[in-house]
Amino acid sequence: MHGSFPRLDIGPLSEYREDHIMIARFSDYVHEHQSLVFPHRHSFYHLVLFTEGAGRHTIDFHHFQASPYQVYFMIPGQVHTWDFNDQMEGYVVNFSDSFFKSFLLQPEYLDSFSFLDQDSSNNVLMLAEGIRGQICGLFEELLSQNARATAWRDDMVRVLLIQIFLIIEQSDSVDRKKNAEKGKNATVRNFIRLIDKNYDRLRLPGQYAEMLNVTPNHLNALCKEHVGMQAGELIRNRIVLEAKRLLINLDLTVSEIAYKLNFNDNSYFTKFFRKETGMTPEDFRKSPAL
Question: By residue range, what is the domain housing residue 203?
Answer without folding.
Answer: 184-286
